[in-house]
Queue: 2 jobs
Job 1
Amino acid sequence: MGALSDLRRDALVRLMKVGSSRAGVARVGDLEVRVAPGVCHPAPFGGVSFAPLFTAALDGLRDGDRVLDLGTGCGIWALLAARAGGRVTATDLSHVDLTSIAAAATAHGLAAPRLLHGDLFAPVAGERFDRVLFNPPFHFGEPRDDAERAYLGGADGEVVKRFLREVPAHLDEGGRAYVILPAHERAGYQADLSAHRVRDVRSVWLPVLGRVHLLALG
Ligand SMILES: C[S@@+](CC[C@H](N)C(=O)[O-])C[C@H]1O[C@@H](n2cnc3c(N)ncnc32)[C@H](O)[C@@H]1O
């Protein structure tokens, strides 16, 4: 379990559910993508969003670099990566409808990301990338339905922990992975993070979540 009290986590999960069920449109600059009901909103409480972390993770991306956006949700990070010149593969679990991502790519004149369904690296078995991006379900707790899989990664945080174990096998030489974690959940992943060279790249303060960090691995 992470460092949060059960009471605080329960309140936080309820609030996340409200924020994440806010279907509509996600915007970063001039990029717009539809967020279907039940799909995680990158600005769950309006206004400030994960966008500064998304853009920091794309810094230095070269034309044609292979980018994997795991758990892409509405696909905004994948589209930003495509606009930065990446050849993007975006994945998510089977209940997440990825069709709006292709439509948004066309509307913005971007190459459509390769869109795949499946658990973590299963859809890209044997493949390596220059950059792997993951804004994971970082809270500790067992999801009771598909919508909760957006922010609950298992009672023991197994989704993030599995990601941390498996990501090295999917990075090309010189490749880098980026993962987003809120400060209050980081202690729960410390043992697994310690297997990596971790660099704190950037942080933002978000309502409900507090200070949230972009970590570079590798
Ligand atoms: C916090 S949301 C992030 C969505 C989007 N990347 C963003 O930043 O707005 C986490 C996403 O990971 C997906 N997810 C959860 N567990 C997963 C798994 N085991 N494999 C692949 N995707 C997963 C969820 O469906 C959800 O879309």
Note: The mean pLDDT is 91.
Job 2
Amino acid sequence: MGKDRLFWSWDRQQQSEIPNREIRFETILDTLDAYLPKNFTALDLGSGPGALSFRILKRFPRARMIAVDFDPVLLKIGKDGLGTFGRRATFVDADLRANDWIQKLPIKKFDAAVSSTAIHWLDRKGLQNMYRNLAKVLRPQVIFLDADILPDGKGSRATEIAEKIRFSEIWYS
Ligand SMILES: C[S@@+](CC[C@H](N)C(=O)[O-])C[C@H]1O[C@@H](n2cnc3c(N)ncnc32)[C@H](O)[C@@H]1O
């Protein structure tokens, strides 16, 4: 068995739980394709073993991914699974809720940030820390694409923002 066996096992397990996962990934890849130069550097937030990073690196041979997660097992599976991408794939062990998570990044400016089914794990304070720090390492005019299921309860912050966007003139113009 190859070193990437556990990487694909994770990928299959996630796929079985999230039936339209691949469509979400495709949408993220198409958006990156449409808006960024092909040699972009992007962050994968809560990357796990790097399923989304893998797809990005495969489609964009000049791109570089920095994958951030705090689970040592998933980080190890990712390093083994994405080893063939050499220095185009870097895994960083950091807690996105922490005040200083960006200090662990080997690069300080990014062209994009992506994430999939990870950010919903962060509580309000953790989410604030994550976004506050993220803003410091993203270049102006960057893209942030999150394929996640956010709480849809009435009165939740996510619902409030979604409703505003859905009914704003910007959305329809
Ligand atoms: C369902 S998995 C998704 C992994 C990957 N994005 C994917 O789509 O396969 C959620 C991931 O979020 C990570 N995660 C959750 N809270 C985190 C935190 N505070 N800091 C860093 N990673 C976190 C977990 O370790 C896990 O790898």
Note: Residues 14, 46-48, 51-52, 69-71, 74, 95-97, 116-118, 121-122 surround S-adenosylmethionine (CB under 6 Å).
